[in-house]
Specification:
By secondary structure, this protein is mainly alpha-helical. The chain has a domain of 245 residues. The protein has a 6-stranded mixed beta sheet with strand order 1-2-3-4-6-5.
């Protein structure tokens, strides 16, 4: 299997375009792509540092809500509008602009608690029922439309349709939405208190948003899908005043972890590297030891392809923080960009010694091994990852690449089929499953696996078309 160098670099960057719904999952968001239908794409930031922050803040809240931990997944998408949403599938999505508005981790936790409350209360299922009488045009211009698009892969539903809609349809639902928002706020305050967060953080963040609403000429999408009023802020304050969190349960959050993620979001979202560089240099002028600003500057240089400056910035951070797994990750990625896979492999091993179970670091190690010609151990690592994380398209793709390089073409096509099945790309999925069946002898167990998976995919896809 021949793979173009551009695809290998794309894999190294962690970029995958989900062709049905316009999603890109990425570790390094250097490319903003669009689907074949020219719908607006959604860039999902997939770095392990972001995942760690969201999981650390959100895991106790999920437990407090009585939801299964495995059911909930947290994501940050690159978007300059303040918004957040809970999809019926258990995916909680937060726009980078909303994360950037949080002054403290507790404020982000309060938004997470609110979205978890929507899921726990079953609001989305009820909302869909209430919308049966609303025209399809209005449906597509609500956040529920985005939820349906992500859940089903419906190409007619794009992320561009999150704001707006017919005034009549919005009017029909506004009272119901307000009621649900207030209920979610009250539940969220209790979740915050029960897990040891400051219950006042919900009202604090709502006040902040209310201030932004008054300054803006056009309401943020969050304020359209989460109607906000002074009464709602007062209600959150009253609820917080009546809950009594146990003092011995208070959670100590890390504000630096949030600021580092915010710096990475600025570096990822700013289309003008010079503007982002000026911002971080300005912060460092007044606070020379500001680690998040130094980190953000290093990321700006790397995303802009200024490898020499990026290396200098990361090396300076590692000189003082040599045991930071995410600074080591950035160094490893820079070494891969410099065509030094053996050195990158050593650095990823260092990072893994600090975070042994981190799937992203194991994936990066596998990439460095494969680029260094160590195909068999790379394939072993990737196979393990695809078993542990079977719903991550990127791992299946990289396994397909490595198996192709090893000339195990049946296994390569099987991995690629699973990759495209996760992306809901029917033509490519069918092609690779059929190629896998052509490569495996009928007596092999892999032949039976590929045949069974192909049949299941066709049945599920047929059901999706008839819904």
């Amino acid at each position: 299997m021949h793979v173009a160098p551009g695809f290998i670099r794309m894999l190294r960057l962690g970029l995958i375009l989900v062709s049905g719904v316009g999603f890109i999952f990425c570790g390094l968001p250097l490319v903003h792509a669009k689907t074949a239908e020219k719908k607006e794409s959604v860039v999902v930031l997939d770095s392990p540092e972001i995942e760690e922050l969201l999981t650390t803040l959100g895991k106790p809240l999920v437990k407090a809500a009585g939801l299964p931990e495995a059911m909930i997944q947290f994501h940050i998408i690159l978007n300059d509008q303040i918004n957040a949403m809970a999809l019926p599938s258990g995916h909680l999505v937060f726009n980078s602009a909303l994360v950037g508005q949080c002054d403290a981790p507790e404020e982000l936790a309060s938004v997470m608690a609110h979205e978890i409350a929507h899921l726990a209360a079953g609001h989305h299922m009820r909302l869909q029922g209430e919308m049966r009488s609303v025209s399809i045009q209005a449906l597509l211009t609500t956040v529920v439309g985005l939820a349906a698009g992500v859940a089903t892969g419906n190409n007619s539903i794009s992320s561009a349709a999150m704001v707006g809609g017919q005034a009549a349809a919005q009017s029909m639902m506004l009272d119901s939405m307000r009621e649900k928002e207030s209920q979610a706020d009250r539940l969220a305050v209790h979740y915050l208190a029960n897990t040891g967060y400051n219950p006042d953080s919900m009202a604090t963040f709502l006040k902040h948003l209310l201030g932004e609403q008054r300054k803006a000429s056009i309401p943020a999408p969050y304020l359209l899908t989460h109607p906000l009023s002074t009464e709602r802020v007062l209600d959150a304050e009253r609820t917080a005043a009546n809950v009594h969190p146990a003092k011995d349960k208070m959670i100590k959050t890390d504000p630096v972890a949030l600021k580092r993620v915010q710096a990475s979001l600025i570096a990822a979202s700013e289309t003008d590297p010079k503007k982002a560089e000026t911002l971080f240099l300005g912060q460092l002028k007044s606070h020379p030891d500001d680690v998040p600003a130094r980190y953000g500057l290093a990321l700006v240089y790397r995303y802009a392809g200024e490898t020499r400056k990026a290396n200098a910035a990361i090396d300076a951070l590692l000189a003082k923080h040599g045991d930071d797994p995410y600074f080591l990750r950035e160094k490893g990625l820079l070494l891969l960009d410099d065509g030094k896979p053996a050195q990158a492999e050593a650095v990823f091993y260092q990072a893994l010694a600090l975070r042994p179970d981190n799937p992203d670091l194991r994936y990066r190690l596998a990439v460095s091994m494969s680029e260094g010609g160590k195909l068999e151990p790379a394939a072993r690592l990737l196979r393990r990852l695809t078993v542990e994380k079977p719903t991550v398209p990127l791992y299946q793709y990289q396994l397909g690449v490595v198996e192709g390089q090893r000339e195990r073409l049946g296994h390569a096509h099987l991995a690629m089929a699973r990759h495209f099945a996760l992306l809901m790309d029917e033509p490519m999925t069918l092609f690779h499953y059929k190629e896998a069946l052509n490569r495996f002898p009928p007596s092999d167990k892999e032949y039976d696996i590929a045949k069974t998976e192909l049949k299941r995919f066709q049945e599920e896809h047929k059901k999706g078309r008839t819904r």
